[in-house]
Amino acid sequence: MTATIRPTLARRLALMALALASVLAQPAMAQSPHEGWYQVEVIVYSRPLDTSAETWPSDLTLRYPLNWQELRDPDEELEKRRRELSAAQTAPTTSSSDDMSASSEPAPASEPEPIDLARAGFYQLPRDSRGLNQVAARLQAQPGFEILFHEAWRQNVVGENRAPWILISGGEAYGDHFELEGSLNINVSRYLHVFTNLWFSEFQMNTGQVRNQWPSLPQNPLQRLQASSANANMDVTSFWQSEEQTGNENALQDFLDAPYLPRQIVKLEQKRRMRSSELHYIDHPRLGMLVKIVPYKRPSEQSLQLSSEPESRGD
């Protein structure tokens, strides 16, 4: 009996080993991305409209999320820091007369630290750091196509519940609004995901005509925050509460004051799963969107310091 049991047991162990090996091999074959740093590049463009085709719904909900993130221009940010530094250096102090006489000479203006694009997130990268410039040029050359937004940036991609919505605007400006507005969200779970919350508006002059069926365009939260910054007593909570309470009340006044009104609005609201390092296309009858998300190895501060130090030479 022993002679018959041992081969059976051996076969069972072999089958168990094969099954275990296949289970362990599956994650390696379908390994999902993890939270970490990526370089993101996005192109949004408008395309010719087939006048015989779509009838666009007008019962749209246009809203910016609470968890938003500005995509900053490094040159504008550096200039802002220069102004803040200059204002801090020229601000009056309550020093004594002796101290003032001793420091009558103005302190030399110092330059703020440059923006570290290699490590900082949510900054627009220079044109030569983009990978889709030729694609954008080919799109722009197509009759009726117009590039509304083309930027690249780096960010730490996290889970959906923590990922911020990045403010997007582009195209021609009409008063306080742009042709393309909204936000997008890049997050990761088992896979990378891109959520779009974008709207494209065609405008007409406000000549006092009867209000049409299109909803009022929401104010960019960054503009709203800047406009409210003069009120030092308004905290973040009251800022958002005031927006909810006064949104409908101000809609009519905004309509009367606006130099331009939307003639048509189309919305691009989708959720797409992405593969890193691949170019993805999000289709829409009126818009098109290209997205490429590439893993980025963010350098440490120490490695940057070492690379910036001059090499020592022996005698």
UniProtKB/TrEMBL annotation:
<protein>
    <submittedName>
        <fullName>Peptidoglycan binding protein CsiV</fullName>
    </submittedName>
</protein>
<feature type="signal peptide">
    <location>
        <begin position="1"/>
        <end position="30"/>
    </location>
</feature>
<keyword id="KW-0732">Signal</keyword>
<feature type="compositionally biased region" description="Low complexity">
    <location>
        <begin position="86"/>
        <end position="112"/>
    </location>
</feature>
<feature type="region of interest" description="Disordered">
    <location>
        <begin position="77"/>
        <end position="113"/>
    </location>
</feature>
<dbReference type="InterPro" id="IPR021241">
    <property type="entry name" value="CsiV"/>
</dbReference>
<dbReference type="Pfam" id="PF10972">
    <property type="entry name" value="CsiV"/>
</dbReference>
